[in-house]
Amino acid sequence: MPSAHRSLPALSTLSVLIATGLAGLPVTTCAAETDAQPATTAATATAAASTLDAVVVTGSRTSTRTVKNSSTPIDVISAEDLAATGQANLLEALQRSLPSLSQIGGYQSDQESLIRGYQLRNLSPGYTLVLVNGKRRNASAYVSGANGGGYPGHAWTDLALIPVSAIDHIEVLRDGASALYGSDAITGVINVILKSQAHGGDVSVESGQSIDGDGSRTSVRANVGLPWGADGFINLSGESTRQHHAIRTRRYIDGYLSYPALDANGNLVALRPNNRLPAGATPNPAEAGRNAEANTILSSPSYDLKAFAVNAGHGLGDSAQFYATATASDRTAQAIQNFRLPATIFGTYKAPSVLNVWPDGFLPVLETKEKQYTGTAGVKGQLAGWDYDASLTGNRNTVRTYTRNSVNYSLAYPGAPTDFYDGKLDYQQGIANLDLRRGFEVAAFASPLEVSAGAEYQHERYQRGAGQWESYTGFGAAAFVGYSTADAVKATRNSKAVYVGAATNITSRWYLDAAARWEDHSDFGSVSTGRLTTRFDFTDALGLRATVSNGFHAPSLGAQYYQATGSCPCGTTLVAQVNSPAARALGATALQPEKATNYSLGVTWDPNPAFHLALDAYQIDIRGQLGQSSQVGYNAQDPARITDNSGTVLTAAQKNTIDALLGTAGISILPGDAFFASYFTNVGNTRTRGLELTVEANQQTGWGHLRWSYAANVGRTTIEKVGAIPQALQGLPNINLLTKSSEYALRFRTPSYTQVAGLGWQNGRWRSNVDLTYYGPIKRLNNGVEYKLPPVLVTNLSGGVELGGGWSAALGINNVFDKRTRKVPAYARSATDVASIETTWDSGDVLSLIGAYWYGRVSYRF
């Protein structure tokens, strides 16, 4: 069942939901980070899940904070809660558990459908730091960019690669924490705590499919704890998941032609715009066998994931302990791309020989082969009165991309390849940490003054390797153009940091925690951050908490060295490396870190051990938001009408200005050609404000134990400032740093509010859960027209039984009432779209086209 520690509110419906009995999710617990523990039985797990007094290790360098008395909002989600969601991976399970965390909704094209992003507090996934046992986990080698990416220049940790079978619990800090952890922790921190028991284990098999009978998925997960000497442990985990496509189509309208037409002599001729017959032509006889549902791009991705983890610890005498963690993941995933019609092959790309191979068109498939490795080894203990923790961490993510079942229209010769290797992305990260902590008795304070200090060194390496030459030459592989040799790059950087902190209870009711950090990066310089958090308990039940901090997000190596070149009949597009001659000619400057200032104020109320309420307000100001510049260049394919990327006719003076700018970088636009260039840049400032509410309760009745919870999040992002247009581009039309579509992507990608509510019941060996997610309206933009997706309620049911002898079984249905992606209203669809496709589904919806999904799980605990 999803965690009781979810985030936040649409306050107006709180009383309604609770009154109708639809509130409640399990209260979860947190275990010591690396101590060996005995195997947990179902009964003790349930008991543990009913307390909020678990000590948390995220968000403070002190060791006495719990969920209830934390000075910052923290959610704790147990392994049982993750498994009970019936989701395929950690990312999807967290989305079900936290209203403040939203997976980027709907269908995403290209690599972003396979390396999924997520938003904490309505902001970029690049602003959320992920830790494993308190140690930094790397972001993906993939950088969101020109191929349908929603966050230009941003990279994020691929949560779906972390094996769920290895997780003891997860702590989610919903607040800025750069002063503690460095870059990326602008919106919060997800700390994955691995299992550490030295005995016992469990095995489970889960399988299910969509209500339509496709999209089947099977997962096998296992965990075992082994003793290592008298005081050590080795905990091993592994899992394998196979997810198949759920096929969903974009149906062509009746009468929409798929094949080139025939002239009076029976020769093939190109169709007119919107696939209409040219004068004097007749439809191709092949139209009689046309497949109106050939375009299955809306289908869910398929993948095969194998993941492993080890967590180990061993005593080194009376005052030290060795520890080590490692994870390894291997995933091959496929995403179906747009169907290529025979008429398009013949008319637009003028490649009739391709019809010899694909007479009825073809359906390209984008495939990624991703490998992720992480490892940490360290020693912690006590020396001269100080607690110390010294560690080395190595992380690596490699993504190889392929285009299957496709062609390069420019290379339409007999025997030309139909499968392409598009290139490799590789990111490596090495980190050395030293953390120190000591408590000092100070007479003026009600508790010891906890002083902390530390240092960190980090080395990063990024590589983009070219694909096979056929993947990028000319038009490149249809659907995904490979990385060219001109776009290939190798880059490194290093950074060093020092940090200090102090925390204490000034009085028995007033807690104060301060932290500061200084970092210096070899490429963009130094950044200083600070954080002050406090809590005052007016009574044992009522507390007030507040935090002010500043943070930053360093421009990744992938962003700084990103370059992508593409070509099609409409011309050539270049996303230029920001420090390249082409970008500099168009006014680009070096990328600067995105900087943030965070404010939060909250109240907690715990009138008895069985009830907890927390309400937090927050504001996050981000300066220098990363984005993408306007496309600069022109289309000269019609000599009588030279236009910019927006279709505006340019004057001779404007054309000459562009020629002069590009000429300084050695780029010339030839007559009959088209060329447009852009680059990543800091585009402006945003402000995000919101409220988060969590209500949790436990109740023991004569017919079982109940766990109730309600949580909600409401947030709003505004654009506070847009950066100045570079001097070199002033005077050109349609030049801006934030288009309307980019603004909507920043502000309205997630619902204006999200509410979750649920009820968990257990009586003896039986248990059941009902939980609901109520998504608020989403403001959308399509074809330049604004519309709203209305609120929607999604219901999930699950139940299970202990069978005895360590065996248990569970059944569940996610999305019981089969809610699916909503349609784009007719008034917001383009004329081309209306002329070709029956229905356009909203690609930014929080729902998917998969619909209801049922699953069953059998587990054995030993």
Structural descriptors:
862 residues, mainly beta, Maltoporin, Chain A, 22-stranded antiparallel beta barrel, 5-stranded mixed beta sheet, 12 helices, 45% strand, globular
CATH topology: Maltoporin, Chain A
| Biggest beta-sheet profile | 22 strands, antiparallel, barrel
Number of domain modules: 1
Note the beta-strand portion. Answer: over 45%
**How many β strands by DSSP?**
36
Principal-axes geometry comes out as: globular
**What is the end-to-end distance?**
22 Å
Question: Looking at this structure, what is the CATH superfamily?
Answer: TonB-dependent receptor, beta-barrel domain
- CATH architectural category: Beta Barrel
Q: Report the total helices.
A: 12
Q: Rounded to an integer, what's the Rg over CA atoms?
A: 28 Å
Mean pLDDT over all positions: 90
The unreliable regions are 1-51
Percent of residues in helices comes to under 10%
Name of the top-level CATH class: Mainly Beta
Structural class: mainly beta
Explain this structure to me?
This protein has 862 residues and is mainly β. It has a single domain (11-256, 292-861), classed as Maltoporin, Chain A (Beta Barrel), CATH 2.40.170.20. The chain is 9% helix and 45% strand. It is built from 12 helices and 36 strands. It has a 22-stranded antiparallel barrel. It has a 5-stranded mixed sheet with strand order 1-6-7-4-5. The two termini are 22 Å apart. 51% of the residues are buried. Residues 1-51 have low confidence and may be disordered.
